[in-house]
Amino acid sequence: MTKTIRVGIIGSGSVARAHAANYKALPGVEIVGVADIVPGKAKEFIEVRQLNGASAFENHLDLLNEDIEAVSVCTPHVAHHRTTVDALLAGKHVLVEKPMCSSLEQAVEMVEAGKKSGKILTVGFQPRYDPNHKAMKEIVESGQLGKVYYVQTGAGRRRGMPGGTFISKEISGAGAIFDIGCYSLDMALNTIGYPKPITVSAYTSNYFGTNPKYHNQSEKFEVDDFGVAMIRLEGDILLNFKISWAMHANSFGPTLFLGTEGGLKANPSGQTWDSPVASMTLFHDLLGHQTDTSIPVKQHKIDVFHEKIRDFVEAIREKRSAPIPGEQIMINQSILDGILRSSKLGREVEVHIPKF
């Protein structure tokens, strides 16, 4: 008989709705409670989502006192760190939404809490479950590109600036680089094996968000809407990163992986790398001829968000390690942290990640 996994959800915003729906769709999973600091919001969430038997809490610590095995952390970005650490130290497995947190120091503390508790800490990068994302990684790992020395990635919205909590520095920590930039970084870094960063030289701005011509909450806009960075990685690799919520262009161009034996070009189907792969091309020499090989994109009906939730639950049930481990995403967060520091200081900064 399948063991029932009892879970809780911390935060009841839009992404929490997707977590609830996918937990409900899985056999042997019970949503025991929902916590939200806004009075009445968790109760309303339970009623609207028809989470029969679930309890509402205004303090996540009260939810953690319940008989549950795991939680989804779906709070605003700046609350990811505290709620995740509290959950891990309370002996609960954790699936935390992206970005992991707001700083490298916070990411380190989250990883330390996971190691101390022996519980799963996984981070919500569902694009990894797309078979075409996996195909890019397989191409690199196969050696067809030789030694990869340069990666270019990013996501460019011509217009796509959110409002509300997303533009509050106090609540979100940062803007486009946290919201969609972390996806581009995970796609690129995961494809090449997640080498650690050495230095970051970055620039960010918010010329569009703070202009009433382009944003109807411009007076409240406190975060970045544009960012670029040059990141030196271990293994003599340079990562060229670009991101925007708004700009006078429709794209930053394709993602590129350049190696000594070949190159791989990829484009997302949407404007950002939280969307499926639209095209892939392999550039290589064949019998002395410069050759471009179009790689067929696999057509599929996989719900990658559902796979993220399912894999978390199955990892708990099967006592597996974290599907997308916090130790790995700590590297992602260290780059985001470096971008913020470099942009603020106006110079290149070093990145130091503690060894565990």
Automatic annotation (TrEMBL):
InterPro entries for the chain: Gfo/Idh/MocA-like_OxRdtase_N, Gfo/Idh/MocA_oxidrdct_glycsds, GFO_IDH_MocA-like_dom, NAD(P)-bd_dom_sf
Limits of the Gfo/Idh/MocA-like oxidoreductase N-terminal domain: 5-125
Keywords: Oxidoreductase
Keyword Repeat: no
Record bears the keyword Oxidoreductase: yes
Name this polypeptide is given: Gfo/Idh/MocA family oxidoreductase
Annotated GFO/IDH/MocA-like oxidoreductase domain residues: 134-264
Organism (species): Paenibacillus foliorum
One GO MF term: nucleotide binding
A Pfam family this chain is assigned to: GFO_IDH_MocA_C3
Signal peptide residue numbers: none
